[in-house]
């Protein structure tokens, strides 16, 4: 016998339609659903966050029209946080799952566990992430989608069909998705594998599965002025003076050089906006941009590449990062 779980909950308040222009400041007439109040699974709002208009519209289309949305981009571009911050402003509950090598099909679908009932051991089915998310208003986000194991990916494939049920064979049960269940994913590649050698461990995705994503959006790094604004908002002590703002601008320029070098294959580590913010915070602590840069970023890098990064620093900051790096760059 197959039981169909009721996907609706009478306790769930209906969302109201609000203007995307007013809520996100983007030039579009789209009306988007927003729940009246935040619940425990709604992400916290980051008031300093800067939205990419095209990617924001793609994410909003997912929330509004129940489209399956995949966001692709280099690491550190803010793919997952973009979805989180859209959900935060829509008061939409969200759950992120990282598809690393330790996530199994049983983690997603569920498994039988032994529990003690009335003093005796008994077997009870413990539902996984997917069935738990599907029966309530929830945005389920699969991070590192292109790193998932093949058995895990096939468990996800049925979800990509809009309004499709999810079958639990061991339970003889079909789960119908809640009308406010949404599905998103983020990936460093577009399912073609590690062609450029930058992302070890990613998989080639089944084309039939990739084709089921309704919207695929590409996210690049922030515009320079936007990133400067975020760093200034996060570390206001550094942004209080014109010289401090000039320093933040130079820091973002250094970060962009590392990103260009990473894309060209010259270095294997780049500075994300998060790293720039950490650098700015450490400047407030150590009162020395060079020392803060070493402790925030360069010590994470391959030793053979540090002289290249020191050249980036010297080019923008007009000062030596470290004498030993300068000698290495000179070949001595």
From TrEMBL:
SUPFAM superfamilies: P-loop containing nucleoside triphosphate hydrolases
Every ATPase dynein-related AAA domain range: 69-196
Recorded superkingdom: Bacteria
Stretches assigned to the Cobaltochelatase subunit CobS N-terminal domain: 17-42
Alphabetical list of InterPro entries matching this protein: ATPase_dyneun-rel_AAA, CbbQ/NirQ/NorQ/GpvN, CobS_N_dom, P-loop_NTPase
Protein's UniProt name: Cobaltochelatase subunit CobS
Organism of provenance: Paeniglutamicibacter antarcticus
Gene: cobS
């Amino acid at each position: 016998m197959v039981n169909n779980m009721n996907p609706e909950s009478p306790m769930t308040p209906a969302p109201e339609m609000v203007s995307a222009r007013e809520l996100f400041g983007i030039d579009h007439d789209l009306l988007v659903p927003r729940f009246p109040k935040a619940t425990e699974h709604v992400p916290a709002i980051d008031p300093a966050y800067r939205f990419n208009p095209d990617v924001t519209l793609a994410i909003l289309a997912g929330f509004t029209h129940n489209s399956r949305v995949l966001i692709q981009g280099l690491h550190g571009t803010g793919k997952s946080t973009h979805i989180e911050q859209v959900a935060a402003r829509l008061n939409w509950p969200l759950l992120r799952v990282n598809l690393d090598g330790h996530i199994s099909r049983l983690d997603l679908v569920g498994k039988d566990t032994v529990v003690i009932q009335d003093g005796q051991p008994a077997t009870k089915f413990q539902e996984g992430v997917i069935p738990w998310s599907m029966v309530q208003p929830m945005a389920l986000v699969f991070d590192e989608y292109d790193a998932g194991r093949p058995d895990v990916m096939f468990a996800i494939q049925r979800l990509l069909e809009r309004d499709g049920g999810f079958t639990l064979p061991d339970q003889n049960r079909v789960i119908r998705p809640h009308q406010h269940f949404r599905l998103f994913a983020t990936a460093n590649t577009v399912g073609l594998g590690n062609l450029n050698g930058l992302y070890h461990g990613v998989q080639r995705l089944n084309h039939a599965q990739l084709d089921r994503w309704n919207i695929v959006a590409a996210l690049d790094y922030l515009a320079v002025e936007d990133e400067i604004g975020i760093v200034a908002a996060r570390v206001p002590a550094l942004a209080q003076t014109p010289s401090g703002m000039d320093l933040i601008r130079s820091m973002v320029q250094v970060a962009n050089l590392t990103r260009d070098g990473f894309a060209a294959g010259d270095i294997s580590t780049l500075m994300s906006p998060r790293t720039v913010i950490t650098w700015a915070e450490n400047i407030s602590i150590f009162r020395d941009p060079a020392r803060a840069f070493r402790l925030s970023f360069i010590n994470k890098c391959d030793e053979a590449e540090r002289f290249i990064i020191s050249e980036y620093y010297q080019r923008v900051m007009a000062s030596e990062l470290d004498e030993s790096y300068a000698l290495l760059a000179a070949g001595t």
